[in-house]
Amino acid sequence: MSGEQKVxxxxxxxxxxxxxxxxxxxxxGYQVAVADLIREHAIKVATEIRNHYQVASLPVxxxxxxxxxxxKMVRDTVDIFGRIDLLVYNAGVAKSANITEYELQDWxxxxxxxxxxxxxxxxxxxxVMVNQRYGNIIQINSKSGKVGSKHNSAYSASKFxxxxxxxxxxxxxxxxxxxxxxIMPGNLLDSPMFQSLTPQYAKKLGxxxxxxxxxxxxxxxxxxxxxxxxxxxxVVFYASDQASYMTGxxxxxxxGQVMH
Length: 260
Ligand SMILES: NC(=O)c1ccc[n+]([C@@H]2O[C@H](COP(=O)([O-])OP(=O)(O)OC[C@H]3O[C@@H](n4cnc5c(N)ncnc54)[C@H](O)[C@@H]3O)[C@@H](O)[C@H]2O)c1
Prior knowledge:
The protein is of the alpha/beta class. The protein is 48% helix and 15% strand. The chain has a single domain, classed as NAD(P)-binding Rossmann-like Domain (Rossmann fold, 3-Layer(aba) Sandwich). Nicotinamide-adenine-dinucleotide binds next to helix 1, helix 4 and helix 6. Nicotinamide-adenine-dinucleotide (NAD) binds next to helix 1, helix 4 and helix 6. It comes from Melghirimyces algeriensis.
């Protein structure tokens, strides 16, 4: 790898955590394919990378749950950049409801995006990485992939599934010098995803929406919410050769909230 510029795909890189990860990887010198369902977001982030970080970037519009589109994303990335060193699978959706009211279509969409999309993307990228005999795959999971989450059955089930997939990919790909790890963020309290769930959390806890934030801070031994930077630091480390003896892991970045 020495001498060549590294290449990353951030799947679900168009906003919020994925956007922050795309910029951080650009800062670390990666050329970044920013892949997202929302075309304008992918273009915005890729343009910012080119202008601000002076590294090449490729916006890709893709539905990561569709096999043909994922194949095209990987083909286009290799056509432009020649290789793929890192896949960050960040795309995820969350819909909160009590189990007795959980709609099948919400279950299906959550499993498709959080788990099937990870499978499809990792599989297609792995084909390239196997040929290279080098690569890193990192899934952005959640602490809900380690412990069940009230009123979040589909989300938690999809993220638990991601742990099994990560471990199995790690076993399949170890002989090709490809490492696969999941990162389990705690609550990103300032993210729109968390804030969109606040009314349901207030209902579930029987408190006012404005009290939800403090309740979630109080659950964390280090007494703060998770930040995009906390996750970016873990991604950069696990993508680096400093983590060369680590694969198949599900790494908590939760301020001590989850310890297993
Ligand atoms: N926000 C939190 O508190 C929190 C906590 C723990 C883990 N996470 C995980 O972190 C990741 C990012 O979370 P976020 O809060 O930034 O979410 P977000 O909804 O703001 O961003 C997700 C991105 O994925 C894209 N996406 C969704 N479905 C897609 C599809 N089918 N094809 C292509 N792109 C698709 C969206 O367009 C969006 O840009 C998710 O995997 C989430 O589960 C979030």
